[in-house]
UniProtKB/TrEMBL annotation:
Residues 306-679 form the LptD C-terminal domain. InterPro entries: LipoPS_assembly_LptD, LptD, LptD_C. Component of the lipopolysaccharide transport and assembly complex. Interacts with LptE and LptA. This is LPS-assembly protein LptD. Belongs to the LptD family. The gene is lptD. It comes from the Bacteria. Its main location: membrane.
Amino acid sequence: MRHSTSQATPARYAPTPIALVAFALLHGVAQAQTPAEPPLVLQTSRSLREDIPAAVRSEQPTFVGGDSVQGRPDLETVIEGHAELRRGDTVIHADRLEYYQPDDLAKARGNVRINRAGNIYEGPQLELKVEAFEGFFANPSYRLLRNDAYGTADRVDFIDDKRSVIRNATYTTCQRRPGPDWMPDWILRATSLRIDEEEGVGQASGAVLSFMGLPVLPVPGLSFPLSEQRRSGVLPPTLGIDSLSGVQLTLPYYWNIAPNRDATVYPTLMSKRGIDLGGEFRYLESGYNGRVRADFMPSDQLRHENRWAYLAQHNGTLGSLDGSPVGLSLNLNRVSDDNYWRDFTHASTTALTQRLLSNDGSLNWAKGDFSMRLAAQQWQTLQDPTAPIVPPYDRLPQLQARYLKNTLPGGLQASVETDFTRFHSSDPTLNQQPNGDRAYLLGQLSLPVRTPGWFVEPKVQLHLTEYRFDTPLLATGATSAERTVPTFSLDSGLVFERDAVYFGRAFRQTLEPRAFYTYTPFRDQSALPNYDTAPFDFSFATIWQGNSYVGNDRIADNDLLTVGATTRLLDPDTGAEAARFGIAQRLRFKDERVVLPGETPISERLSDLLFVASIAWTPKWGVDTTVQYNPKTGQSARSTLLARYSPSAYHLFTFGYRLQRGQSEQVDLGWQWPLNDLWGDYGTPQGPGKGEGEGRWYGVGRLNYSVRDRRIVDSVMGFEYDGGCWIGRVVLERVQNGTTTSNTRILFQIEFSGFGALGSGALQTLRDNIPRYQFLRQQTTQPSRFGNYD
C-alpha cells in the first residue's frame, strides 16, 4: 500500500510504532497465514541498496506517524506534532506535515528536517513531491553525505533526486567548533550553487572563495568535485616559481568525453619564456588503450625559437592471424631541440625530460609454442657538449621468432630463438662502425630434473651469428662476418629445511647450496662490431648466467664454476620471509679472452665475493643489502644498503647507500614524519587517507647526496600542515640538469578538503619522489547512506 492512513471519516488517534508497522504490513501478514507455505528464506531487500532504482522506488510503501493523524483515504493526510513521513531512503520530520496522495505532495512546516539518502536539509518550510523529489526548501541549512560539506542558503530547489540548485549559498567542509565567534577556515559563497549527485560535481556562479577571512579566488563561475568521480570543467589553477622559467601559472581544463575517454588542456604562462600550450588525450577501449600528450611554445623568449614535444603510447590488438590476435604496441617520444630536457625538467611527462628518447613500435603474435615479433626503434639523442652521449643504433627493423617445446620425451625441453636486425646510425663515424645487418640464432636443449629436495639441469646451446655491412670494417676491410659458438652448462642445487628458533621466534629455516658450471670455448670476436651489447651488472642474479654479456654481439668464453648458498627464515604459519642471506663466488679455470672494446680481460681465478641480505623481521622495518667484496684488497668494490623504518602510519624514514669504488658514492634519504612528535605531541592515525587529525605538522622530503663530490645532487624538502578541512604544502625542489647546473623551484599548494586545490603540483612531486608516501586526505571508501540513517 502507498501510505498507512485509511480512516473512513476524519479522526484523531495516537499510533504506536508497532501499530504503524502492523498497519502497513497488514496484507502481507494475511497472505503469510495461508496453509502449505514454503519455509522462509532470508533474501537481500531491494530497499537496502545504496541507490534504489526508479522501478523499485515506485513500489515502496509510505509510512506516516506523529502525535495525531487525520485525513481522508487516498486524498490527504495531516500529521500534527513530531510528524514523520518515510518512504525508501527519504525521511521527512516536521512539527506539521500535510501529505496529498493524488499529487504525491508533502508540505511541511516548523523544524523541518529531510534526510534523502544521507543528505540532510533543515529549515522552516518544505514543499516536495516525494517520489519525483521535486520542490523547494525555504531558508535551509544542509549537509551533503559524499564529502561531509555543509552550508546555509536562502532557498533550495530540488530538480530531481540527483540534482538541486542552492540559492545564495555558503559551502565548506570545516566542522563547527564551540564558541559564538567561530568561523570556518575556508568558505565558498555563491549566488547559485548547482549540486549534481549523478555527475559528482558542484557548479558555483558568482562565487568567492575565502581563506582565513580573506578572499583568495573571486570567479564568475567554477566547478568542483563532490567525489572522486571524473567531471568536465576548469580545474583549479596551479602556481609555481622556477629558477629557469620564472613564475608559472597553469589553468587546466578537463573534458570527460566518455567513461572511457578524456582530454585535458594545460595552457601555462611562464614569466621568463612565454605561453606553453599543452594537452593530453586518453582512451581505453575493449581491445586497445593509449594516450597522446603534446606541448607547443610558439616563441621561447629565452631560446628565441619555437619549442615543442609530443608523446604517444598505444597498446592493443590489430586483427588476428590464424585464430590468434596480433598485438600492436607504439611508444613515440620527440622534442624540438637538445636543450629541452634541461629547460623543462619538471614536464608532466617524464619520458620527455630524458636525454635518450625512444620511438618504437612492434607487432606481436603467438600461437601455441610459437611466437613472433616485428619491431622498429629509432632514438633521439639530446646532446650536452659537456657530457656527450654516443647514440645507440636504430633498429630498422627487427624481426624475432621463438619456438619453445617443454613436452619432449624423457622430460627434455628444447627451444629455438632467432633474430634479424637492421642496425642504422645517422652518423656511423661517431660510432666508428658501419651500418649493417645481423642475423642471430640460438638453439638449446635441456633436461631439468626437480624434486622437493634437489634439482639438476644440464643444458647445451648453439649460437649462430652472421653479419652483413654496408661498408667494409675499418679493422679488417671485411663486408661480412660469421660466428658459431657452442655452450654447455650444468645447474644444480639442494634444499634443506629445519625448524629453528631465533630471538624467541619460531621459523622454518632453509639451507640452499647451489653450483653452476658453464663452458664456452674461445672464438675470436675482436673484429666484430658492437651494436647492442654491454656487460651484465655483477650481482647475485647475474652471477648464475652462462654469458657475462647482454646482447648478441659478444659470447663470452667461459670455463666457470659458480658456487654459493642461500638460507631463508620463513614464518611456519604464513610462509612469509622474515630474512634471507646469501653468498656466491666464481671460480675461473681459464683466462678471459673475449671482451668489448676498451675492456680489460679477466685473469683472476677467483671473483669477488657477493654477499646479500634481506631482513623484514617485523612490518615496521626492513633492510636489503648487497656487498661485492674483493678478498685481495680487503675492500668492497660495490655496496648497497637500503633500509626502511615505518613504526606506524605517516611515520616513514628510508635510507639508501650506494658505493661503486673509484666512481661514485651516494647517500639517499627519504622521510615523512609528524613534526609534532618532536615536542611530545604524539598523534593517533585516524585510518587510511585520514592522517593523524587536524592541527598537525609533517616534514616530508628526499635528499640525494654525493659523498665523492661533496654536494647535494637532487633534493625535495617541504612541510605539510593538516588544518582539518584544508592541507597546506610548501615544497622546495632542486634537480640537477647538467654537470654544473641545476633547476630549483618552490611549490605552494592549499588543498581544500571536498573542494579542490590551489597552487602548484606539490602533492604530485611528493608522491613521485618519496617512497611509500601516504596521502593525508584520500577517500578510500564511498560513504554509505546507512551511516547517516534516520
